[in-house]
Amino acid sequence: MKKINIAFIWHFHQPNYQQKPDSDFLLPWVRLHATKDYLDMLKKIDECKNLKLNFNFSPILLESLNEYLNGAKDLHLKLLLKNQDDITTDEKVYILNNYFDLNYKNMVLKRPYYTELYNRRANALKLNVDMFSSQEYADIMANFTLLWIDETFKNVYPELDELLLKEKDYTLEDRKKIYTIQLDIIRRILNEYKKYQDENKIEISTSPCYHPILPLLINLKNNEVKNHENLPDDFSAKEDAEEQIRLAIEKYEKFFDRKPKGMWLSEQCVSMETINLLQESGFLWTVLDEGILSKTTGKEFIRDFEGNLENPFALNINYKFSQKNSLNILFADSFFANLLNFGYGSYDSKLAANDMYEKIKTIQSKLQNSPKENHIITIALDGENCWETYQNDGNDFLSTLYKLIDEDDTINTVLVSDFLKFENNKPEILDGIKSGSWINRNFDLWVGESTKNVAWLYLASVRKDFENYRKQKLENIDELKNKDEILNRIEKAYREILICEGSDWYWWYGEPNESKSDYIFDFLFRSHLINVYEFLGIEVPEYLNLPLSVVTTKPLRNPTARISPSLVCDKEDKLKEWENAGYIFIPDGPTSNISRLVKNIHFGYDREFLYFRFELNKNSMKMFIENIENQIAIYFINEYSNNFSSIRLVNKNENIYPILKNQFSHELRFVFNSNYISRIFLNKAADFNLWNQISSKKSSIAYKDVIELKISFEDLEIPKEDVGQLSFCILDATNELINEVYPQDVLINILSEDRF
Questions:
Q1: CB atoms within 10 A of CB 226
Q2: How many separate helices (H) and strands (E) can be counted in the chain?
Q3: Rounded Cα–Cα distance for residues 218 and 233 (Å)
Q4: How would you classify the pairing of strands 262-263 and 666-672?
C-alpha cells in the first residue's frame, strides 16, 4: 500500500492579558493552559517510536510564559497565595464568580468534595459570600487550580499526588506548593520544546507577533467585509503587518535559537497581499483551511454521509504560486478539525480514536491510484481549548490515536519542512488565492458587526494621533535634548498599538461570541489604547473611558408593515411575502456549520396571527444524527396572564443570558431534523412554576426548504380589543440543552396597536 503522510499541527495562542507591560495578568488562562495542555501534549512523543508532531506558538504566548517565570502573577494566582482569613468580601465575590469556570462532567465531577462546593454555589438563588467558610474558600481555589494541572504530572511530582488526594483543608503552604509545581511546568515547557525541536522530533512554527488579522491590517475595507458602517475611511497599516511578522521572527529566534520556517497566519486569515509578505520574509510554508482552497479553485470538496471525501487528491498535496517561490501552502482538512474540536469529545475516547484512524485509512485507500508519490493529510487546529470535553483531558484519545498511527507501517507522521524536501514532491501551482479565514471563508468574526467596527474605528483614531506625534517628533529628533526618551516613548506606544491589532479583541466584541469575561477584554483593549497616550504624554480622549457596549447596540430590524404570508416554505420564491417582516440578525459563528441550527429568522404579524420564518443550517451535523431532538422554542410574555413560569430548557453552563432570567406566560415548541417536523406544542404557565399543555386552535406549521409557522393571538390569549403588550424570545436547543438565544439580552416587543 502506498504510504500516507500526516502533519499534525497544534496551535497554541493566548492574547495579552496585562494592562501595562509590567503589570500582573487580569486573566489566568496562560498559566492554566500551560499546566494542563502544552507540556503533556509534547510528551506524547515519548510514548511512540516514530511519532513526529508540529506545534505553533504565538509570540505573545511565549512572552507571557516568560513573564510568569520572571515573577508576574494573575488575579487568580494572587488570591490562591493569600491567607484565607485575610480575603476580603470583594475577593470572595470574585472567587465565587471565577473559581468554578471549568467543565462539569470531565473536571468538576473528578473531585467529590469540590463537586459539593460547586453545587452549593450553582444552586444558590442569590450570591452570598457567607455561604462558604474561610477554609472552604481556600479549598475552592486549591481544587480549581489542581483541576487545571494535567494528571499525568502525578508521575513527575510526587507532592502533586499527595495534594490531589487531600481534597479539603488545604493550607496556605499547600497552595504555595501547587504554584511551585505550576511554575516548574512552565519552566519546562520552554526548555523541552526547544530540546525536542533540536532533536528533530517536532517542528515549531510562529504566528504574527500579537496575533493580528493581517489581511485586515493591509486592507480593512476589502471585498470580504460586508458592512462598512462605522469603519474608518482610510485605515491601512501595511507597515504594522510587516512589523508583526518581523517581531515574530525576532522573538522566535530569542526562544529557539533559529529562524522559523513556517508561519501560522492568525485565524488562518489570508489574502494575496499577506502571502506576498510571507514570501518576502523568507517563510517556507503556511497552512490554510480547505475552504480557502475551494473558494480559490471554485471546486467544493464533496463528502459522503460519514464525512469521507469522495476525491481527496486536491486536499492532500502541497501548493505554490510558482516553482520559483519558496513558500508552500498546505490546506488543513476541516472535517478532522471539526471532529476534534466539536465532535469526538462526547464519545468514548478509544472509540473516537479508532474512528479517526479508520477515516485516515479511507483517505489512504482512495489515493492508491494517484499519479503522485507523496500525499499529506494536514490536521491543523487549536491545541488547547477542546480537551476539557474529552475523558481524561484528551490523554486517552491522543495516546490511542498516536499508537494506532505509529504502529501502522504505511502511515508516516511528518514535520512539515521535512515533507517539503521529499523526493518527487512537486507542488501544484495556484494562480492566486482568495481572501478569507478558517471560519466561513470570510472575516465576519472580526469586522462588519457594529461593535467590532467601532473597535476598528477606535484603533484607527488612536493610531492616527500616534502617527501625528511620531511624525512631528522625528522631524526634529536630532535637535531634541531628550531624544532617547522620545524614542523610548514612541517605541512603547507603538507596541500598544500592535497589541490592539490582535484578533481576540474583535473576536469577543459584539456578536456572535460571548465569554464570561467580555467586559475584561473590553477593558484591556481600551487600556492598551489609553496606554498609547499615556506613554506619549498627551491627553487621553474621553471616549476611551466608555465601554464599547455603551456606544453600540445589537442589530434587530422591526417589522415595517403587516404581513400575511402563505406558509409555502419556498426558500426564494415566496421570500417577497416576508419583505416587510422583522429580522433577527444572526452572524456566522466559529461553530455555525457544526452546532447552530438556525441561520436566519424573520417575524411579523397581521390582525390575527404572528408569523415566524426559520432558515435552517442544513450543514449542521445535528440535522443528520439519529436519536437527538432538535427543537425551537418560542417563549412569550402576555402581560395580562395570571401565571408566569421559568424556561424549562437547560443552560449548558453558568454563563446565563439575561433574557433567560425572565418568566413567561406561554411556550411554543416543535421538533425537527433534516426531513421531519413535529406538530406545534403549545403550553401555558401554571401555578408553582409549572406548565400545562393547551390546544392550538388556529396555529399551524409547515416545512419544506424552510420552516414557517403562524400562531394566532387568540391561542396566546390576546383578544383583538386588547391594547397590551406581547414580548417574546426564541431558543434553539438539542436534547433539552440550549444552543442559542435570540436575542440574548432584550425581549422583542409587539404592541397590540401596531397590528391595527
A1: 11
A2: 22, 25
A3: 14
A4: unpaired
Please give the Cα distance from 532 to 462 (Å, whole number). 8
Residues 6+ apart with CB under 8 A from 506: 213, 445, 446, 447, 452, 455, 456
C-alpha cell of residue 720? 383583538
Q: Report pTM.
A: 0.76
Joined grid coordinates for residue 591:
461553530
Q: Give the 3-state secondary structure of 624-646.
A: CCCCCCEEEEEEEEECCCCCCEE
The neighbour count for residue 333, using CB atoms within 10 Å, is: 25
Q: Is 268 left (phi over 0), alpha (psi -120 to 50) or beta?
A: left
Cβ contacts of residue 575 below 8 Å, gap of 6+? none
Separation of alpha carbons 507 and 509, rounded Å: 6
Q: 374: exposed, middle or buried (C-beta count within 10 Å: 0-12, 13-18, 19+)? A: buried
Is pLDDT of 183 > 80?
yes
Helices 450-475 & 483-500 angle (0-180, nearest 10): 160
Contact present, 246 and 469 (Cβ < 8 Å): no
- Kindly list the structural domains of the chain, giving each domain's residue range(s) and its CATH number in brackets, ordered by start: 4-13+202-429 (3.20.110.10), 29-50+58-198 (no CATH), 454-551 (no CATH), 556-755 (2.60.40)
Query: How many degrees, rounded to 5, is the angle at CA 103 between CA 101 and CA 104?
Result: 100
Q: CA neighbours within 13 Å on the CB side: how many for 102?
A: 32
pLDDT of residue 553: 43
Predicted confidence at residue 751, as pLDDT, reads 61
Region 411-416: mean pLDDT is 97
The grid coordinates listed for 129 are 459570600
pLDDT digits (tens, 9 = 90+) for 700-737: 999 987 899 999 988 888 876 654 578 899 998 888 88
Sequence-ordered list of residues with C-beta below 8 angstroms from that of 314, at least 6 positions apart, any chain? 293, 297, 299, 301, 428
355 Cα distance to chain centroid: 25
Here the cell at position 274 is 499577506
Average pLDDT over residues 300-313: 89
Residue with cell string 489515493? 367
Most confident of the following: 277-291, 442-456, 465-479: 277-291
Give the integer Cα–Cα distance in Å for 189 and 140.
Answer: 27
Q: What three-state secondary structure class fits 742?
A: strand
Q: How far apart are CA 419 and CA 716, in angstroms?
A: 65
Rounded distance between C-alpha atoms, residue 144 and residue 103, angstroms = 11
Give how far Cα 10 sits from Cα of 81, 287, 445, 576, 724, Å. 32, 11, 21, 47, 56
What is the bridge-based pairing of β-strands 690-694 and 556-557? unpaired
CB-CB contact of 141 with 169 (8 Å): no
What is the Cα–Cα distance from 238 to 240, expressed in whole angstroms?
5
The string of DSSP codes covering 384-443 is: SSSGGGSGGGGHHHHHHHHHHHHT-TTEEE--HHHHHTSTT---EE-S----B-TTTTSS
Cα 460 to Cα 84, 209, 453, 615, 660, distances in angstroms? 45, 19, 11, 37, 37
> Quick one: DSSP state of residue 110?
G
Kindly report whether the peptide bond that precedes residue 743 is cis, defined as omega within 30 degrees of 0: yes
Alpha-carbon radius of gyration of the chain:
28
